[in-house]
Amino acid sequence: MLISVIGCGYLGAVHATCLAHLGHTVVGIDSDRELAARLDAGRPSFYEPGLESLLTETLATGRLRFTGDPAAVAGSSVHFLCVGTPQLPDRPGADLSALDAAVGALLPYLRDGDLVVGKSTVPVGTAERLADRFAAAGSGAAVAWNPEFLREGHAVADTLRPDRLVYGSGTGDERAVAILNEVYAPVIAAGTPVISADLATAELVKVAANSFLATKISFINAMAEMCEAAGADVTVLADAIGRDVRIGRQFLNAGVGFGGGCLPKDIRAFGARAAELGVDRVAGLLDQVDRINLGRRDRIVDLTAEVCAGDLVGARIAVLGASFKPDSDDVRDSPALAVALDLQRRGAHVRVTDPQAADNARKRSADLTVVDSVTEAADGADAVLLLTEWREYRELRPADLAGLVRHRRIVDGRNVLDPGRWRASGWSYRAPGRL
Ligand SMILES: NC(=O)C1=CN([C@@H]2O[C@H](COP(=O)(O)OP(=O)(O)OC[C@H]3O[C@@H](n4cnc5c(N)ncnc54)[C@H](O)[C@@H]3O)[C@@H](O)[C@H]2O)C=CC1
Ligand SMILES: O=C(O)[C@H]1O[C@H](OP(=O)(O)OP(=O)(O)OC[C@H]2O[C@@H](n3ccc(=O)[nH]c3=O)[C@H](O)[C@@H]2O)[C@H](O)[C@@H](O)[C@@H]1O
């Protein structure tokens, strides 16, 4: 099939590459011409394990190309919308301006029978609005919604072997379902279940899934607060409740909380849409989830002050981790950077390091000192903070840092180190949710 993918960031670059890998002829279009040119040369503009090799391999087949030219959609019959839907600058809610611009640029090239498939995460009702827009413009193209559930750091595998495919389509639009089945034929043949729904349900599935994940993390972080108050250990609690298959152990890691380009903005946009529709309970629930989450960043700052005997002014703090999660260079709404900036505002001298996200951290905040190694970050430090659980940080031993730091103090913001081991080596060890 001839397919266009519009918007080639974290989602679109992976989606375009994987569809071409599956055998389709794909053009990826991005309004950022430099980004498109880099992808076309086999160089993704972000770090995602496995993407660069798959991209190089797939470009070589001649079935995949990237361009900044919106006219390149002409000739494709299926158009995936993968542009960003960030938070509005001044309030909770999704900024749909990129989506509307992308649709505006696509409209003149649409032919009757084309299928426009939304993958971006949007407020419920957006697909219907776009369908009305196509109809008003006299276009014979149909709209479907096919939300994406990939995780950064696992994006290629999640795209080729997703837990499920969800299709939303207009009433009685069996053709859209048939086209999507053809697009994903090899994925479906490998056993992926397909759930077909109306447009609104498909849109809601996506934000409900992210809201559930966010709620699960905030639940365990609320339990971490309880554990601290009661002198209990949240990591043991999570292991024990997670053994119940109805609960499950995943997404029960307490710590500095969730960040990234999706969970935070998605729960806020969903809350705002719920409030618009008068569903205040959903808005209220998600507001609490957000508040609990943001409170975790403050808790890490408090723990840092505690290990530094209350005095952050002039303290030298090493922050290990800048990305919002390991195996990604994405620093959007990164809890690690939020904590680093807050400590700096309180007078600490902070040095941040990260195996992949150092450049993005520097771009994000010119005020931060970002260094290239743990050694540089920890040199002379009064406290070390582990805030993104990259494997190399999880595997750190007390002896790796002991000769570098000024004081043996560590805050394990992700609950991934063995407290006994660090304490036995003379370190003050603190972590959220355990004494
Ligand atoms: N990043 C992720 O892991 C996932 C993201 N999503 C959703 O996918 C959407 C995209 O997210 P990301 O890829 O992370 O964002 P991103 O910001 O990395 O990429 C968006 C891309 O769209 C391009 N763009 C903006 N306006 C355009 C236009 N008019 N025409 C062509 N290109 C345009 C931008 O230049 C940028 O490269 C969002 O709605 C997000 O919530 C969904 C699942 C996973
Ligand atoms: O809509 C999206 O963009 C994506 O958002 C999340 O994926 P992602 O943001 O890549 O990362 P996650 O693995 O979900 O982690 C999100 C945040 O939660 C934090 N987290 C995760 C798990 C946990 O137990 N505790 C915890 O604090 C992570 O450190 C990270 O900051 C969802 O997991 C994807 O299914 C979804 O497609």
From TrEMBL:
Pfam family, one: UDPG_MGDP_dh_C
Pathway linked to the protein: Nucleotide-sugar biosynthesis; UDP-alpha-D-glucuronate biosynthesis; UDP-alpha-D-glucuronate from UDP-alpha-D-glucose: step 1/1
Boundaries of every UDP-glucose/GDP-mannose dehydrogenase C-terminal domain copy: 318-419
Binding site for substrate: F149, L150, R151, E152, K206, F251, L252, N253, A254, G255, G259, K325
Keywords: NAD, Oxidoreductase
SMART domains, per database record: UDPG_MGDP_dh_C (SM00984)
Highest taxon of the lineage: Bacteria
Any Gene Ontology biological process: polysaccharide biosynthetic process
InterPro entries the record matches: 6-PGluconate_DH-like_C_sf, NAD(P)-bd_dom_sf, UDP-Glc/GDP-Man, UDP-Glc/GDP-Man_DH_C, UDP-Glc/GDP-Man_DH_C_sf, UDP-Glc/GDP-Man_DH_dimer, UDP-Glc/GDP-Man_DH_N, UDPglc_DH_bac
Group of enzyme by EC: oxidoreductase
UniProt binding sites for NAD(+): D30, T85, T121, E152, K265, R332
Enzyme Commission number(s) of this protein: 1.1.1.22
Catalytic activity of the protein: UDP-alpha-D-glucose + 2 NAD(+) + H2O = UDP-alpha-D-glucuronate + 2 NADH + 3 H(+)
Catalytic residues in the record: C262
GO terms assigned for molecular function: NAD binding; UDP-glucose 6-dehydrogenase activity
PANTHER family assigned: UDP-GLUCOSE 6-DEHYDROGENASE TUAD
Family indicated by similarity: Belongs to the UDP-glucose/GDP-mannose dehydrogenase family.
Protein's name in the database: UDP-glucose 6-dehydrogenase
Taxonomic source organism: Microlunatus parietis
